[in-house]
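tool=predict chain=A
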Amino acid sequence: MNQTKSTSRYGNLRIALVSLAAAAALSGCNSDMADLESFVAETRLKHQGRVDPLPDFAQYESFTYAEMDLRDPFKPQTELSATTATMSLGGPRPSDNRRRETLEAYPLDALKMVGILKQRASSWALVQDPDGTIHRVQPGNYAGQNHGKIVQVSENQINLVELIPDGISGWIQREAQLALGEDE
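tool=predict ok
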């Protein structure tokens, strides 16, 4: 029983201390707030701001697409007028049904002529690819990524004719050479 009395005394003492602390905290809230109210009033008088009005925006005008006057935006631009299409059909074109050759996987500037082979009336050029493999080519073979057809093999160079797209679904022929490389 002694222990119950001592526990209840400490419990009553704790309640009394908590009540006293709460009363002290609440008594601080009732202090004079006149100085705070005067500060707020002075600050409002100092900062009389002005907000600029929103700018005027131009009225949105919708666009009506007149399909008779303009090209269809959903068709590729490669479709040309009948006159341009007929002009480009008569020019050179790469063959779509031929098998691509090994040297067509590399740009022409990555290939290097390293020698020539002659046997009776036939001659072949030796071309090294970037991987170091040597290929034997002759007129009629292809090299480079622009459909470059080998037209002549000489002692010092290989002459090619490349087909370059002209930008309007046609092709332009361009001459190119691979010269015999010098030892580095």
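The CA atoms of residues 35 and 41 lie 10 Å apart. DSSP finds three helices and seven strands in the chain.
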